[in-house]
């Protein structure tokens, strides 16, 4: 069979070609593994490739296809999974040294569902230590394929780099304070953070359980919809899982038959003060252009007010995260604290000394914010905002703690509040215009209404300049 050149196909395109017999799952897996290995030093995106497991899965899928059995939504397509998702008998280090030899005895629910849908799990993607704000000092951070000196985001940086470098057709990320959105924005991907409880967290090592979300990172909205169809659904093993029906998100995609104004009747909310005060002008301009494009597609743009407590929650996020992170690491910290890097150790120590009353006060505030945001979303179908107040920053700036200038918005202002509230968000990339790197923005939707975000996102995607990813030299 001829050599494949499929690495820039979308997941959906690759799946359709495999099902039509244009190539085998084994061939695509072999070639993607070879590409991932060849680009390993340039990307540093995989904690480990699962060569044997991936090849065995591909062979089984080819046998299934040959026997005429029904094929899943992700049949034969190689994807990356963040290395905090448990994989039975395979190391799951969560970016740490203390867990580097931890081999779970079961698969995370998301891993089970991906396998059942025919995905080939190509490798475990690298992440920051414990999914917090910095990589362990002994681990090489993933490198942004757009520019090796540009930030690749946290903590799902490995997942973002893998998809943007063409060494995975999609990847799973997690988001507790912005870690699907930051790497999606930095690497020009579609990132979908579902409603809290829509995707099971069972078998995902936590950063902060009450704010953790798992979601897909892809190169198209259709791929994100396809992945969410597989990942979403009730799981009795997760006490926070929502027992509600899961729609077919692929049916929410816009198509050519929807005409020139497919978003007619839709309402997009924007708080101009929220999206511009202390925000870099280039980021504001990206948001402004996106608003204009959505309006051209027929959406009505309505000015709204984001609840002001969003800023308080962004600023105080570390307290909630620290308390819950300390609980998650109780088996390792302080007994093995010398094996921790300084950033994660600092978070855990913050959590251990945070008064219970302060934690409870933030829990009360998050409930109030969530209710207030629900009320705002009764007026509109989605809210638009940036993902971060800066255009993709340099790695050097972020390594120095992203020091904020006077008047600059909190770096977590557009992300952490929606982890607190549990509302779904969809990150969308924009092609570069007179700037070195692509831009991004996000849509924030009603709880359990990912379908509307997918409809809005797909209409926008089809009407705008496609993203052409950088071709690294193999």
Architecture blueprint of SSEs:
Layout: H1 11-19, H2 25-38, H3 40-43, E1 46-49, H4 51-66, E2 78-82, H5 109-116, E3 120-125, H6 157-164, E4 171-175, H7 181-187, E5 190-193, E6 213-218, H8 221-231, E7 267-270, H9 272-276, H10 281-296, E8 300-303, H11 309-328, H12 342-353, H13 356-376, E9 382-385, H14 395-399, H15 416-421, E10 425-430, E11 439-445, H16 450-463
Parallel strand pairs: 2-3, 2-4, 7-8, 7-9
Antiparallel strand pairs: 1-3, 4-6, 5-6, 5-10, 9-11, 10-11
Helix content: 25-40%
Strand elements, count: 11
Residue windows where pLDDT falls under 50 for at least 5 positions: none
Q: What overall geometry do the principal axes of the alpha carbons give?
A: globular
Along the chain, the helix and strand elements come as HHHEHEHEHEHEEHEHHEHHHEHHEEH
What is the CATH topology? Amidase signature (AS) enzymes
Number of domains: 1
The average pLDDT value, as a whole number, equals 96
Q: What distance lies between the first and last C-alpha atoms, to the nearest angstrom? A: 21 Å
Q: How do the strands line up in the largest sheet?
A: 1-3-2-4-6-5-10-11-9-7-8
CATH class value = Alpha Beta
Shape-level CATH architecture: Alpha-Beta Complex
């Amino acid at each position: 069979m001829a050599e494949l050149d499929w690495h820039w196909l979308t997941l959906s395109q690759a799946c359709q070609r495999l099902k039509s017999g244009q190539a085998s799952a084994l061939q695509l897996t072999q070639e993607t593994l070879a590409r991932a290995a060849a680009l390993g030093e340039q990307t540093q995106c995989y904690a480990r490739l699962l060569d044997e497991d991936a090849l065995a899965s591909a062979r089984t899928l080819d046998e299934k296809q040959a026997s005429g059995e029904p094929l899943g939504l992700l049949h034969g397509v190689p994807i990356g999974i963040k290395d905090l998702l448990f994989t039975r008998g395979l190391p799951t280090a969560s970016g740490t040294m203390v867990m580097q030899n931890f081999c779970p005895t079961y698969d995370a629910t998301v891993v089970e569902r991906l396998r059942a849908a025919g995905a080939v799990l190509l490798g475990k993607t690298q992440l920051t230590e414990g999914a917090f704000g910095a990589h362990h000092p002994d681990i090489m951070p993933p490198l942004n394929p757009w520019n090796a000196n540009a930030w690749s985001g946290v903590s799902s940086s490995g997942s973002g780099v893998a998809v943007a470098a063409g060494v995975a057709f999609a990847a799973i990320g997690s988001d507790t304070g912005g870690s699907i959105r930051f790497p999606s924005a930095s690497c020009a991907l579609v990132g979908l953070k579902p409603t809290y409880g829509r995707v099971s967290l069972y078998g995902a090592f936590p950063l902060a359980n009450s704010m953790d979300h798992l979601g897909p990172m892809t190169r198209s909205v259709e791929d994100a919809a396809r992945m969410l169809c597989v990942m979403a659904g009730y799981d009795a093993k997760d006490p926070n899982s929502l027992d509600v029906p899961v729609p077919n998100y692929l049916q929410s995609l816009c198509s050519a038959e929807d005409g020139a104004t497919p978003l007619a009747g839709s309402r997009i909310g924007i708080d101009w003060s929220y999206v511009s005060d202390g925000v870099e002008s280039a980021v504001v301009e990206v948001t402004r252009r996106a608003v204009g494009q959505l309006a051209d597609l027929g959406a009505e743009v309505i000015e709204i007010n984001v609840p002001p407590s969003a800023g308080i929650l962004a600023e105080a996020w570390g307290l909630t995260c620290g308390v819950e992170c300390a609980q998650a690491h109780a088996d390792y910290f302080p007994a093995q604290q010398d094996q921790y890097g300084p950033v994660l150790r600092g978070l855990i120590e913050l959590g251990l000394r945070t008064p219970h009353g302060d934690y409870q006060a933030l829990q009360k505030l998050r409930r109030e914010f969530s209710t207030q945001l629900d009320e705002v979303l009764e007026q509109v179908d989605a809210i638009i905002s940036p993902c971060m107040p800066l255009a993709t920053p340099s790695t050097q700036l972020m390594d120095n703690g992203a020091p904020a200038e006077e008047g600059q918005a909190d770096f977590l202002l557009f992300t952490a509040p929606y982890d607190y509230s549990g509302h779904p968000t969809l990150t969308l990339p924009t092609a570069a215009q007179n700037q070195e790197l692509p831009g991004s923005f996000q849509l924030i939707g009603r709880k359990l209404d990912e379908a509307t975000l997918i409809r809005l996102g797909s209409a926008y995607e089809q009407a705008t300049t496609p993203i052409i990813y950088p071709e690294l030299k193999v």
